[in-house]
Amino acid sequence: MAKITGKTEAIENEESATFEPSKATEHVRAAAEQGVEQAKEAFSKLQSDAETTQQAFESTFEVAKTNRNEVSLKTIAALRANAEAGFKHLEALVAAKSPSEFFELQAASMNNQIDASIEQAKTLQAVMVRAGEDVSKPIKDVFEKVLQDFRAA
């Protein structure tokens, strides 16, 4: 029996702890197996996340292509309308019979062109805003899913 100075309790030493190589080997093996299993799980998760991200990017690029075509078509339509309005205005100016009629036609054409430009800008802005939302949606969805998974973990 050994006594610890300053204490009234007695500690009995039945046997000293001994080092057993077979148990140490088992612990190292168990730790290694656990590490390998965790690495496999992490790799599987990484692979799954990479595939999800790739699909999101493919979807984003497809949506961007579609929206680019729509923006191009709207821009071409606006340019065509402006060109037609310009030619009609030139025809009207050539047919003007007096300087006052010429200036009236010029003022009316300027007002019409300003109004048309405002409408065209609003239309293009709406298309561009929707395109931005459509293009960012797949990536945003993936990011939100990853964030939810991270919070759950």
Overview of this protein structure:
A two-stranded antiparallel sheet has the order 1-2. Helix 1 packs antiparallel against helix 2. The chain has 153 residues and is mostly helical. The relative contact order is 0.08. It contains two helices and two strands. It starts with a strand and ends with a helix. It has a domain of 100 residues.
List keywords for this structure.
84% helix; 2 helices; 153 residues; two-stranded antiparallel sheet; mainly alpha; rod-shaped
Mean pLDDT: 84
Note the main sheet.
Answer: 2 strands, antiparallel
List low-confidence stretches: none
The coarse overall form would be rod-shaped
- Category by helix and strand content: mainly alpha
List the helices and strands in order: EEHH
Please state the CA-atom Rg, rounded to the nearest Å: 39 Å
Helix content: over 70%
Oligomeric form of this entry?
A: single chain
Total helical segments: 2
Strand content: under 5%
Compute the separation of the termini in Å: 50 Å
Question: Strand order, biggest sheet?
Answer: 1-2
Can you describe this structure in just a few lines?
Helices cover 84% and strands 3% of the residues.
Topology:
Layout lengths: L1 E2 L6 E2 L9 H74 L4 H54 L1
Antiparallel strand pairs: 1-2
